[in-house]
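pasting for ref
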Amino acid sequence: MQKNPYLILGVSENATFAELQDAYTKLQNKYKAERFLEGEAGAEAIRKLEEVEWAYNECQIALNQKATINDSSKVYDEISELIKNDKLIEAQSKLDSIDARGAEWHFYQSIIYYKKKWFSESKTQLEICVTLEPKNFKYAEALRKLNEDMAQTDPFANTQNANASQNNSQQYNQNRGGYTDPTMSNTGRNMDACCNTCCTLLCCDSCCECCGGDLIACC
């Protein structure tokens, strides 16, 4: 079973860098002096020196990680404040300066995209959050609400419908060699049959009049 590095150094897990350094220096000096003892005492001092060295390195790593987490938390608080004040350029710049890009980083990126009304990009960032931390309720709930908003209000729906209507009209005219059929009414009914019937009757009336008759009395 691996030993607790804090117990080896004789400090608490909340020890500062200064406290770690002080404990390490005292133990190091102690065992450096004892390593010259004869027999098992000297050998034990050498083992203790190696153990103290290992414990000091482990505690330093843990303390650095805690400092990084605290610093990141402060940065995200600053980013959140900038977003609230609609300072999106400054918020993006500060977000880009963060090297560790975990779920929280993508969450704030999604917020910036949402504020810019880049809804698809915002959704992609939230999906990354959920993938990285599937049990995180905050990310899952944000994605659910965004999906609902996008389903209820599609800012591109009217544009797409208008474009589709225009494309259908253009396609129809292209199929007719660029000619727009004037006999097509607003209801889409073809007027050719009616026009052809009228023309036929007028021709017949003219022929009858030439022969002394009258097919259509009013003409």
